[in-house]
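Hey, can you fold this one?
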Amino acid sequence: MESSANLVSPQVGALDQLTQLQAYLALSTVHLFQAAFIPGPGTVIGDLTAIEATYTGYAAKVITAFSAPGLDAEGVATMLGLPATFAPTGTAITNVIHGGWIQSAGGILEFAFVLPTAKGMASAVDFLNLVVGVQQPGPGFVSITD
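Sure. Predicted structure:
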């Protein structure tokens, strides 16, 4: 008879795992995509670079550091990246942004996300401020201000 058991990651283990990820994710980049695309387990970086944002002034943003891992209000191990702010510098090329991805400094696709509401990037008054949050155990999150 074969069976399985779920792994449980105690807080001390989850914090240790995030500490290791903290160094690995340093200098990772946040990119935006402009198509109604739903990333899944089979998504590869080429799927995303083919639909990467092109609005005037767009450039991927480097996350220079993540906070030290700590426990959030629910006791989940969490670390936050420094904010990545995106804003057009002109109106020549406009996009509607549907989501983005986080790519390691080594070029590996680490995470992808879909915005809850697509965001138009058409002029200097439009912006997205993203904070990448990584949780263990769990999928993590992206906090969005626009």
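Residues 11-25 form the longest helix (15 residues). Let me know if you want another pass with a different chain boundary.
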